[in-house]
Amino acid sequence: MPENTIDLAQLFQQVTQALASNQSSLNEADTYNHDHGDNIVKTFQTITNAVQAKKGASAGTQLAYAGKALAKPGLGGSAALYSKGLLVASKEFKNKQVSPDNILDLFQTLMGGGQTTSKTAQSPAADLLGQLLGGQQSSQSSGSPLGDLLGSLTGAQSGSSDGFGLDDVLNIGGALLGGGQQNNSSPLGNIIGSLIGGSPMSKSPDRSQSAQLILQTVLPLVLNMLKK
């Protein structure tokens, strides 16, 4: 697998674990059936198993296989939405792999539940993180202000057993967005809001909560992959 390629099986496995750790609270957020946590964990277990079964194939093939695996009864309404999102994403990623340059496009499509979305209409926060994710390695070697900032932040974590995590994303986003200003929303929250807002996942508290958890898991993992 090319160095800049994201292992979808590993990525979705981490997401599944995060959802499983919050399964009870996601069930509580579902005021109708009280089973969203159970269903969303099954959904991402199915996605993980499907992309693992097609490991080595193009991302488009993996995503299409996962989308079809979800297109069956018994997994709940969220599975149907993610199935549609995966099938649309499979066309966007036909004959190519997922990388830090396009990871936000993938999750924007997934959160859209198959809806057509404009990739050029992302918020400034999402655009900024996209540039960060896509350009971290080259910026670190270019001696640019962004490279100096990333180098100092990632270097400060080198002795930490926790690795490069959510706090680091917030620190980087805050510094790049002028984080010295006090406000009620974090940079990461703005980025997540731009990917979820207006999507089917934002229409109910339980789906919104699980979607936020998914993105809170994915973004630090991608930065951690770039750091290695």
Can you walk me through this structure?
This protein has helices spanning 8-21, 23-29, 36-53, 59-70, 77-92, 103-111, 124-142, 145-155, 166-176, 187-196, 205-227. By secondary structure, it is mainly alpha-helical. Helix 3 crosses helix 4 (59-70) and helix 10 crosses helix 11.
- Assembly level: single chain
* H-E order: HHHHHHHHHHH
Distance between the termini: 15 Å
Number of strands: 0
Give me the secondary-structure category. Answer: mainly alpha
Beta-strand content:
under 5%
Q: How large is the count of helical segments?
A: 11
What characterizes the major β-sheet?
none
Averaging pLDDT over every residue, what do you get?
Answer: 74
CA gyration radius, whole angstroms: 17 Å
User: What's the shape?
Assistant: globular
Helix content: 55-70%
List the helices and strands and how they pair.
Layout (H helix, E strand, L loop, with lengths): L7 H14 L1 H7 L6 H18 L5 H12 L6 H16 L10 H9 L12 H19 L2 H11 L10 H11 L10 H10 L8 H23 L1
Helix pairs in contact: 1-3, 1-11, 2-3, 2-11, 3-4, 4-5, 5-6, 7-8, 8-9, 10-11
List keywords for this structure.
228 residues
Précis, in short:
The protein is mainly α. It is built from eleven helices and no strands.
